[in-house]
Amino acid sequence: MGSVRVELGDRGYDVVVGRGLLGGVGERVRETVGGSRAFVVVDDGLPGGLIERAVGSLEGAGYTVHAERVHAEEREKSLGIFERLLGAIAGTRHERTDPVIALGGGIAGDVAGYVAASYRRGAPFVQCPTTLLAMVDASVGGKTGVNLTTGTGLKKNLVGAFWQPRVVVADLEALDSLSDRTLRSGVAECIKHGLIADGVGGGEGGLFGWMESNAEKIIARDAGVLAELVERNVRVKASVVAGDEREEAGSAVGGRALLNLGHTFAHAIEPIGALTPDGDPAKAPLQHGEAVALGLVAACGAGVQMGRMSERDAQQLRGLVERVGLATRVGGLPSDEDLIEVMRHDKKVVRGVFRLVVPVGLGKSGVVDEPGDDVVRAGWAAIRA
Ligand SMILES: NC(=O)c1ccc[n+]([C@@H]2O[C@H](COP(=O)([O-])OP(=O)(O)OC[C@H]3O[C@@H](n4cnc5c(N)ncnc54)[C@H](O)[C@@H]3O)[C@@H](O)[C@H]2O)c1
Predict the structure, then answer these.
(1) Pair (41, 87) in one structural domain
(2) Most exposed: 157, 197, 220, 351, by fewest CB within 10 Å?
(3) Per the structure, how many domains does the chain have?
(4) Which residue range forms the structural domain that includes residue 119?
């Protein structure tokens, strides 16, 4: 078992990583949080055995457990589900000192976290991520929330709160039941970390090269490699979050905004319901990680256009994305003009300034204010099929 500390002073916490951890989650929650009732938000795509293990462990540790299922789809990650969960928790005798626990992927975690942040103005929160993406990214750092549908469509994560978990329990056994597609989506966020790891502390310089050397083993779910992958990526995320908890650093520093690498492109295409990773309509819409992989390729295209990144490095990135089975191009994109308009309304716009994260090599990235439409167009051209 490994453990990574997220250094946030009195809000600091451990991310524990290992196989079989859900069987002992009850004792761990008792030690770190206490309380007597546990409100568990359960991803309904999880195998029953995994849910039983976690709930059984909580009950064994003396908790009265109330479990609410959520369906992990972006359109479900809404104020509607948030309200339903608040109604459910209010219907129990849950007190402010009792834990809210997320058991699932990033969608369950984001929604559960927002419930924890809001119910009685804040209840202790525990993350039990069950997808690779949630283990290496979504469960660490305290961003919680839901999407909002406005007159101009679905806006990702527009409503939410920073609310750090008290502990993150990443049971690698959960990855056994993950579909290949969802595993690959998580690898996309790992590649993103690889593109910033050399410049952000955390001791994970060279992560991109390590991923290149281990790409096939990652996809084949080699147990040792997956454990190392999760720990190394959590160290990158933890280091960035510790340096800029609420994404307030200026563009020159980068800070937490660097984690948005690829996401300004990704968020513009993720809500387009008809897009698919390989042209098969049955696979629409894109998963978050699939959109991020395309976003990373687009960000590299932007970097090349700006002369910040070499064409060779951009090709190498594309090569890794392809080797892990993620798409590097997508058909059916709207016009550049329409996409740029959507990007300008992304919540990452700060004081009216459009910020784009652009790689400067295979391990370092930087924030660029107002990159110019030609740069953004080059990004879209890089992924347009
Ligand atoms: N809060 C953050 O900092 C942060 C960071 C990155 C992404 N996110 C968010 O995370 C979400 C994506 O998360 P995700 O990639 O985990 O997707 P997800 O939550 O949509 O889960 C993907 C699929 O995997 C299933 N699943 C989950 N665990 C499983 C398991 N162990 N076995 C079998 N199936 C399982 C789910 O039911 C779902 O069908 C997006 O909404 C994104 O915006 C948040």
Answers:
(1) yes
(2) 351
(3) 2
(4) 2-178
CATH of the domain at 40: 3.40.50.1970
Q: Are residues 230 and 125 in the same domain?
A: no
Question: Which residues, given as ranges, of the chain have pLDDT below 50?
Answer: none
Which residue, by CA, sits nearest to atom 37 of ligand 1? Answer: 45
- Asked if residue 38 is part of any domain, the answer here is yes
Whose tokens are 């990650």? That residue is: 77
Q: Which atom of ligand 1 sits closest to the CA of residue 186?
A: 15
Domain boundary among 116, 149, 178: 178
The pLDDT value recorded for residue 345 is 79
Residue-wise pLDDT tens digits, 244-303: 999 999 988 899 999 999 999 999 999 999 999 999 999 999 999 999 999 999 999 999
Which of 15, 41, 43 should be mutated for ligand 1, with most atoms under 8 A from CB? 43
Give residues with Cβ within 8 angstroms of 116, minimum separation 6. 100, 122, 123, 124, 125, 144, 163
What is the per-residue pLDDT across 334-352, written as a single tens digit (0 to 9) for each? 999 999 998 987 766 777 7
Q: Residue 108 Cα, ligand 1 centroid: separation in angstroms? A: 7
Structure confidence at residue 152 (pLDDT)? 78
64-82 confidence digits (pLDDT tens):
999 999 999 999 999 999 9
Structural tokens at position 75: 């359109």
Ligand 1 centroid – CA 129 distance (Å): 8
Nearest to 228 by CA among 220, 218, 237, 238: 218
Is there an atom of ligand 1 within 6 Å of 43 CB? Answer: yes
